[in-house]
Amino acid sequence: MKNQAFNQSLLSFLHNSPTPFHAVDSMKATLLDKGFKELKEKDHWVIEEGGQYFVTRNASSIIAFTTPTLNFHSSGWRMIGGHTDSPCLKLKPNAHVVRSGYHQLGVEIYGGVLLHTWLDRDLSLAGRITLKLDSGERISRLIDFKDPIAVVPNLAIHLNRSANDGFSVNPQEEMLPILGLAKSELELQSVLMKQVRKQHPTLGGAEILDFELSLYDTQAPSLVGLHKEFICSARLDNLLSCFVGLDALLAAKESHQPALLICTDHEEVGSLSTSGANGPFLEDVLQRLSPNPEHFVQAINRSMLISADNSHGLHPNYSAKHDKLHAPMINSGAVIKVNSNQRYATNSETAGIYRDLAKQEGYEVQTFVVRSDMACGSTVGPIMAGGIGVPTIDIGLPTFGMHSIRELAGSEDAYGLSKVLARFINTPVLMSSEEE
Hints:
It is a single chain. The strands form 4 sheets. A 9-stranded mixed β-sheet has the order 1-2-3-13-4-14-18-16-17, sandwiched between helices. A 5-stranded mixed β-sheet has the order 11-12-20-19-15. It is of the alpha/beta class. Helix 8 crosses helix 10. The termini are far apart. 26% of the residues lie in helices and 27% in strands.
């Protein structure tokens, strides 16, 4: 029953988080409900022992943390890292296009999108709008159309006889969603302003200055399979890990170990931004918690980061794509991701710690190593490890269809990972400091 309640909350979070802005907004609401206090980066921070806090940057990245002690140099931090963004189609600044009698949207491809999966889907639009009020004040607000308002129709096989032999999609010419017939006039700014007033009726007069809007699939997340073995949803990479990390942090909030959940934006495009893992956000927060340089280094060396990002499960239709001895199965436990070229930050000590914690919780552990004749992806793990020097492990839940508009993961794996992460936060000593 606990697993069922967990999964229903997960599905709700996924459904209500069509963009990184909405994901962070959802996480903020949960944290506030659980008694966490919001901090603002521009303000002076007063951090108290026994406190629970969170801070956001760009409204698309969030760090939540607990402070059962302020002696971070002797306790270190238990850190869990993920990312809020997913590959998608984003509107270009001048997005309105009229072609062959249809209103369409010009889009930019964000991240490594599996483009063909976006064809023939009921698409909606969500994101952030920046406005200027009649008073002269500039503000930003989130919008979400929720209803399907666009579609990218496929080309009939009669006009593309070789389609089933494999075909490529031109992102500039062939991925423009159709909004409707061009028989009537359409002014995109007016459409967006109408949605702003619908969702924020108290704003009064306002002018749209700019926007960051993404298309998304309106089909709701669901449990599928004869025995509901799978979770099928958009944005499992990586909102699945964000939800699991948040659940673990809340479950372990009575721990005596200081803990942080770090969910950053822009991982799918390299993480180099003010709010990405390759930016200064995490280090800025940690240095405000431990401003003494020597104490900061001591704290980092008593800390550990678990970077949680989805892993490639063994696909029965494409089993040759895996190293046979490192082929994770869905619903068989989280996956330790290993790469000798440091595309993942795992080492023997951090892997050993995770294996032991999982065993204590009664969960299996799997391992993924990419085939030696294939390129390896990466995560926020090596970026954070290289940025602040924290011992790190890369883990993930086995997934099918990564970067598809709709991905597939196990309905048992996420709950198990949350239990292991909570034990990670609660464990006072992870590794002996003695060396031979």
